[in-house]
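Re: [ENG-882] Designed sequences occasionally contain unexpected residues at chain ends

Forwarding the minimal case from QA. Structure tokens:
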């Protein structure tokens, strides 16, 4: 069975407690925190997500899955580590070279968090193979990062399959997370390809019953 990381990007202000506690009761596995700086991607959610993360830490015991879509990765790691997330994922494309990628991996580990590397749709999966032994998770974006409610790019299913085959052949323990356009129609395709953590936001938060859709996405 896969795990579900629910994105709170489209959560309405004033409904935070209701949504967060409702998702926890509905057995989501993680709260997915979409951190955007208005530079690496067009949208800016930085301060809002820092506030939401602090709030989640106060009222819920569920782990947070922080996805940094920012240019200044080091600063964001230091700031979001304060809310003690389970996972901090940064974008491979935000680093100027491979040395910086390893520096960010080590910085996250110093904060006692699991490490994820994310790649955009146009980045070849082979570019991050050398980092897989040092991380816990690879987040494959199945839409262009920065906006909620997009349609999953079906070509990305092959990228998931390629990564799954590589980590199986090399016997590397890395989780595969998929983010973008995940719903009841697309979930079976990405699960079959090898994903074991699905990020969903709109599909869950717009549903009448969080518990029902989370169970359907898992199964």
């Amino acid at each position: 069975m896969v795990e579900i990381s629910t994105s709170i990007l489209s959560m309405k202000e004033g409904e935070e407690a209701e949504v967060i506690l409702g998702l926890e009761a509905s057995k989501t596995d993680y709260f997915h925190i979409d951190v955007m700086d208005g530079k690496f991607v067009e949208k800016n959610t930085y301060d809002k997500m820092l506030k939401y993360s602090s709030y989640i830490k106060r009222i819920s015991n569920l782990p947070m899955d922080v996805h940094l879509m920012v240019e200044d990765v080091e600063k964001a790691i230091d700031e979001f580590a304060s809310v003690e997330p389970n996972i901090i994922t940064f974008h491979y494309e935000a680093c100027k070279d491979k040395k910086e990628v390893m520096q960010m991996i080590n910085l996250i580990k110093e904060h006692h968090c699991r490490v994820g590397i994310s790649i955009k749709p146009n980045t070849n999966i082979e570019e991050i193979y050398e980092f897989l032994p040092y991380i816990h998770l690879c987040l494959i974006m199945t839409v262009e990062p920065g906006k909620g409610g997009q349609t999953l790019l079906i070509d990305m299913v092959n990228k998931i399959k390629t990564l799954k085959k590589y980590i199986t052949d090399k016997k590397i323990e890395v989780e595969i997370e998929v983010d973008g356009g995940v719903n009841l129609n697309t979930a079976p395709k990405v699960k079959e390809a090898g994903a074991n953590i699905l990020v969903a936001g709109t599909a869950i938060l717009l549903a009448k019953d969080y518990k029902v859709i989370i169970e359907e996405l898992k199964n």
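QA comment: On inspection the terminal residues look reasonable. The chain has one domain: 3-218. Proposing we downgrade this to a documentation issue.
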